[in-house]
């Protein structure tokens, strides 16, 4: 037997044994060791190639934005199942509800931000992050085009594109100016962290300009007239923060102008904080009156120049102008240009906001999801499916529906159409069986299709759009990550309600927003809160509740400690009036 034939037989005999066994034989052979070693290498290389192939099979998820929705999605996503890439023009997450506090130095900017890379590095896998702005979404080619913006010259191309299997759009919205002339040029905004930092410097500038010798008293008053446009939570909280900053700190360092300061809040509606309970709105208006913050309701701004703001008083039809030193515009949000372009591609050009279904998937797109301020859920109306619901409930095909038949499908109806639950609550109906009653309140044993339509005719009036808040965006991000994590499982084991149009069940339960309450800090260590169960809390104790809730909602212990230390510093030393 030749040496080569012996080696070949030995190689075949060792096929299937672990590499360590082969290596043991290797060293017993003097001349065929290298050949046998090469054979063992080829056997052990197979699992590595298979691993690479599995990695390549991972679906790529591209996430646009690192705000509340995007960060919440990334925190809970099982990245071992996906190839995740994140694109955002900012490499940090900002706790935006505290932006008004940043404008007056109550909280420092770095105390409410967490670097994105600190968040994503905690995951059991790799998430790639690119600091750039998405400038176009190509829905047909499953590709996004991005552009980086750096102050210093960067070697190499600034433009790049990414392909995706799933796209999560969470880029938020921009300030809505309602095309009012002069707003973009002469107003400050409070949407991003940079806005708060710029506003803080501008407030100090107004006091410094008013302190320059040679100015008349009228010129000093103009420089120290702060106008806030918008009576929502952001505008009200900034006005309250600014009042506290002036009365607690600035009057001590600018005593010569302390009697010339004025704050005016302009609201187009009849009341400020009109999305809150009426008791909160009334309390806020009375408190602002005591604090000498002038509230002008029923006024629509027509023009903003660098020296004055022109508005129309709706009740009188008069047009008036008032001089200002600084204007803060906080009147709502609008869709970003990149989202508008995307909407035109998918047939939503006539809508104001990108529409998704109840599972947060963009309508007309199978693999694109949208969260947060950039999108709205287009809740399906129950009357659109009323015939299919009746048919599914009418098991005996009798053409009539009994109370028992209706109860058999009511759980699925409540999950699929949440407006029905709201309707029952608003009408003070204890059970859906109460819908199956005649005008005199007597039970109806059976109802036909027309009677069924009549019973549910007013249900869709309770379908409302969700508010553009951090709370909604965070819940949507957490919901979508759970859906992604259970995607494979739910293909064979659907968890959602039955399909009334079609057969089978939906893979997932639709998104359901759970309102946990909302706060409105009003200054002077007082706040108002709307809590679940129609509870309203107002006063100093509510302010301490606000402190505890906002501290607990921070994304890391680092920002939590920094935030509490900032609050403590403010209580002990006051706010810093340096212009830096």
- Ranges where pLDDT stays below 50 over 5 or more residues in a row are 1-55
Overall residue-averaged pLDDT value: 89
Helix fraction by DSSP (H/I, runs of at least 4): 25-40%
Q: Strand order across the biggest sheet? A: 5-2-1-9-20
User: What portion of residues belong to β-strands?
Assistant: 15-25%
Helical stretch tally = 20
| Category by helix and strand content | alpha/beta
Count the beta strands: 26
Q: Which assembly state applies to the chains in this document?
A: single chain
Give the C-alpha Rg. Answer: 31 Å
GO molecular function, one term: calcium ion binding
Enzyme class: oxidoreductase
Membrane topology: Peripheral membrane protein
Protein name: NADH:ubiquinone reductase (non-electrogenic)
Task: Report on this structure.
By secondary structure, the chain is α/β, with parallel strands linked by helices. 39% of the residues lie in helices and 20% in strands. The protein has 20 helices and 26 strands. The protein has a 5-stranded parallel sheet. The longest helix has 24 residues. 33% of the residues are buried. It catalyses: a quinone + NADH + H(+) = a quinol + NAD(+); a ubiquinone + NADH + H(+) = a ubiquinol + NAD(+).
